[in-house]
Amino acid sequence: MFETFLAIVKRDLILAMRRRSDVLTILFFFVIVVSLFPLGIGPEMNTLRLIAPGVVWVAALLASMLALERLFAIDYADGALEQMLLTPQPLSLLVLGKVTAHWLVTGVPLVLMAPVLGIQYDLSLDGLRVLVITLLLGTPALSLIGAIGAALTLGLRGGGVLVSLLVLPLTIPVLIFGAGAVEATVSGLGGEGHISMLAAILVMALFFAPLAAAAALRVSVE
Amino acid sequence: MAEFFHMGGYALYVWGSFGVTLLLMVIEPMLLKSRRRAILKRIARMARLNVGEVS
Amino acid sequence: MSSRIVNWFKFSSPATFYPLAGRLIPWFTAAAVITLGVGLYMSFFVAPTDYKQGEGYRIIFVHVGTAWMSMFIYVVMAAWAGLGLVFNTRVSAMMASALAPTGAMFTFVALWTGALWGKPMWGTWWVWDARLTSELILLFLYLGFIALQSAIDDPRRADRAGAILAIVGVVNIPIIYYSVQWWNTLHQGASVTVSGQSSMETVMLWTMLIMTFGFWFYAIAVVLARVRCIILERERDTTWVRELEGEVQ
Amino acid sequence: MLEVVDLECVRGDRRLFTNLSFSLSKGELLYLYGHNGSGKTTLMRAICGLLQPTEGEIRWDGEPIRELSEEYTREVLYIGHKNGIKDDLTALENLRVLSTLDGVHITEEQAWDALKRIGLHGFEDLPTQVLSQGQKRRVALARLLAHQARLWILDEPFTALDKAAVEMLQQVIREHLDRGGMAFLTTHQEVELTAGQVKQLQLGKGGQGCV
């Protein structure tokens, strides 16, 4: 059981490494979007410091939405998805494997890059620490919830935009608790409450999202 | 009667709310009626088509 | 609604459900017109003027009713969608698709009336109040459902994909509402709440209930009419539809 | 033992076939014939559980496949029009991943042998992207050698294969049937496979289950 999970994760990581450009484009998108805001809002540090958590988090949200397109589309096109449906392993486990690989490839780079961007917004050390923690908890939840949207819109024309329309409302709690935790820490209120909520959402997503995504895949592949 | 429509100075907001609500509740059924007419017409045309063609 | 669920197995085929819906629509339309008529009369002539908000508060009779309906319809939509998914009955799935536009309409109206009520009371058209924000997110959920169903050509896949989205959505609604509530109290404190239930005189409460029932009857009538259209569109090349097309109505 | 009882499938709003019944037991090969668009692929996908039929039931050893799910999919190997292999992976990696997913543990040597037998000697460690269509098909078919599934569902397996490959595949299928396996096959080419019990099923105009 666990062996197939590893097989899927390993396979997807190898595939991602062989197509490195996909990974970098998402990271660049994240960096560019975060760097655009000061140009739009102005260079005053105190306003930037105020909007930093929200901007970094919204950019992370959009970047993970962008990355969802790749999650199932290629497997659907070359028939690998059909074979995954026909394996003797529960499909939700395979979906979890694919989402894990997808998160390692697209989510983790965002988490590593976030502190650098935080400095750009002159975020305090505490703020940066909590930013990384919340992104570490938040990005997997985004990938999991996003997987449901990606599975539902498989093979549809205009699927990319549709995924965002379906998934973004569902990711709002992650955004609220993620950005809220950083802001609470920076303003001294302490973000523990937010972080625990974010962890709770991640655990729920870990359990329910693969089941929903598997059901959606069965519907889409029909 | 005018005083009633004045709504104690909130005329715009009260009639704006009630007006739009009831307006939408009239538009929706009308849209449905035209949708129904369209599908019935299409079915009628298909029926004529089938009768004409030797199936 | 509940009467039909008792023997719904018999009515789960479109051919038997279509005439039944046809017979029910006039009744619900009449009920809607009467209840709304009474509700409107009470809203303007029976309910007293509010000491604080004057006449402006009468918007609450429409705002709260439509807000309740928008939430209620989403839950009913998810329930029908779930039934359709589990029992593979096509009429339940069609009911879910038929409910969505009406639900979206009520959500929009709730937002519109919320804004019009906020302007005189708090001076701004849009207030980031917990309930209004959740209402806005609910509108996005509706639009997502409708967009997904219209993007899929095959009706069966559209039903089942929509069902999964509706179920995921209905599970998320309490989480979204709770997180927005938390977000709202964190930033603004509890000072601005559109939804603060000021001491409600019983007659106001009754007016609101009657208006809500009116919307409810209206919703059933419209949804049944739309589900009949959907049945005709999907079953257009079946024999029973072709014989039916001579119908005058 | 596979039984199909008055199956009906609808694609979009077109009814492809209705009350279609047939069965397949040990050592039997079933040919599925029918013009394009007669629902052959839909029938095959319904049988391997990818597609829910609108009417009727599919039973494996007496149990409806919807309840069996994983026990049933363990016994089924489906090769459709799409090869199900990843272009960026090498033939070897593809075969190893697919067999792990199928729950079959094959060692490095077994993988090499399978690929050599299927006629990909010398191409084992190239990304399948560079292989020809016929070679890609062979990579997909290599799974037949490693897999222990009792029921093979092959949708036009001979397309894009050369004479030698067709010959080799027929031999593989014969061995599978001799071992008591079952095969469900659609093909447009004339293929002589007379070993064991060969049954035919005609779909579409004039065939069984015609609408």
Total helical segments of chain C: 8
Instruction: Supply the CATH class of the largest domain in chain D.
Output: Alpha Beta
Helix content of chain C: over 70%
What is the first-to-last residue Cα distance of chain D?
27 Å
What is the CATH superfamily classification of the largest domain in chain D? P-loop containing nucleotide triphosphate hydrolases
Largest beta sheet of chain C, briefly? none
Q: Number of helical segments of chain D? A: 7
How would you characterize the overall build of this protein?
The complex is a heterotetramer of chains A (222), B (55), C (249) and D (211). Chain A is mainly alpha-helical and 222 residues long. Helix content of chain A is 88%, strand content 0%. Chain A has one domain. The longest helix of chain A is centred in the N-terminal third of the chain and has 34 residues. Chain A is elongated. Chain B is mainly α and 55 residues long. Chain B has a domain of 28 residues. Chain B is built from two helices and no strands. The radius of gyration of chain B is 23 Å and the shape is rod-shaped. Chain B starts with a helix and ends with a helix. The model of chain B has no long low-confidence stretch (mean pLDDT 84). With 249 residues, chain C is an all-alpha fold. Chain C has a domain of 168 residues. Helices cover 78% and strands 0% of the residues of chain C. Chain C is globular, with a radius of gyration of 20 Å. By secondary structure, chain D is α/β, with parallel strands linked by helices. Chain D is 33% helix and 26% strand. The two termini of chain D are 27 Å apart. Chain D contains seven helices and nine strands, in the order βββαββααβαααβαββ. In chain D, the strands form two sheets. A five-stranded parallel sheet of chain D has the order 6-7-8-3-9, with helices on both faces. Chain D has a four-stranded antiparallel sheet with strand order 2-1-4-5. In chain D, α4 packs across α5, α4 packs parallel to α6 and α5 packs across α6. Chain D has two domains: 137 residues, P-loop containing nucleotide triphosphate hydrolases (Rossmann fold, 3-Layer(aba) Sandwich), CATH 3.40.50.300; 64 residues, no CATH class. Chains in contact: A-C, A-D, B-C, C-D. At the B-C interface, α2 of B face α2, α3, α4 and α7 of C.
